[in-house]
Design a protein that fits this description.
single chain, alpha/beta, four-stranded antiparallel beta sheet, 10 helices, about 40% helix, disordered C terminus
């Protein structure tokens, strides 16, 4: 996919901010549409399927968290949450509703553009991995993860993963048996340095575990290694009962 073809939908009721953001992004080769009404946003996202959605948290008609939850199952593109709040809980809630990243207002245009490009280029990562000779599909007993299709299955049942959750699961699985620090994961997935406080990785791990048949209270597939990071245990995944179906987990 060429960068010039990327279509962005900004869901933002601050008309001046939305227009300034649109002009900056269009000046950098992106196509941008704006939706100011939260009540119409979900239907528009599902109908238009933009390459990326910039979603404000506070909107008239319907708030950003509700919109994110409503569209997540039917929209597989990245959602970048935009919020004026700096409260960690709001950011965590956004990630739990299925947002792929978040940016706090006010945000510098260059920072926003960098975050957008990082999210969009994840979708091209599978093709690059094949070019570099990396596997396109991983199989651990009943758990299968396909980087080209960007889908995962447990037995015969598909696992519902957001774009960011898939990227994290694939990164851990392709490095099975090796502890990945939060710094490594953060840099690989977002292309920026880990600030030591961001909780997005931890939130996504907690969401992925039950989806792949792991026990959230006593995880065996994705282990937390204290003071070091996370470890994907291939042997534990291969030992999953083949007759088990993936739990249907809605975002």
């Amino acid at each position: 996919m060429e960068q010039e073809a990327w279509q962005i939908l900004i869901v933002e009721d601050d008309q001046r901010l939305a227009q300034l953001t649109r002009e900056y992004l269009e000046g950098n080769g992106l196509r941008v549409a704006i939706e100011a009404d939260g009540a119409r946003a979900a239907a528009r996202i599902l109908a238009e399927q933009p390459d990326l959605v910039i979603l404000d948290l506070m909107l008239p008609g319907e708030d950003g968290l509700s919109i994110c939850r409503k569209v997540r199952a039917g929209y597989k593109g990245p959602i970048l949450m935009l919020t004026a709040r700096t409260d960690d809980m709001d950011q965590v809630l956004g990630l739990e509703m299925g947002a792929d990243d978040y940016v706090c207002k006010p945000v510098r245009p260059r920072v926003l553009l960098a975050r957008i490009r990082a999210l969009l280029r994840r979708r091209e990562g599978a093709e690059g991995e094949r070019d570099e000779g990396l596997p396109r599909r991983l199989q651990f007993g009943p758990l299968a993860i396909d980087s080209a299709m960007r889908e995962a299955w447990l037995g015969e049942q598909g696992i519902e993963l957001t774009s960011a959750e898939f990227d994290l699961l694939w990164l851990l699985a392709v490095n099975a048996g090796r502890i990945l620090s939060r710094e490594e994961i953060f840099n690989a997935l977002r292309g920026i340095e880990y600030d030591g406080q961001d909780r997005s990785i931890d939130v996504r791990i907690s969401r992925i575990r039950p989806k792949i048949g792991d026990d959230p209270m006593h995880p065996r597939l994705i282990k937390t290694v204290r003071s070091k990071g996370y470890l994907f245990v291939a042997e534990a995944a291969e030992a999953l009962p083949h007759g088990d179906a993936a739990p249907v987990v809605r975002n």
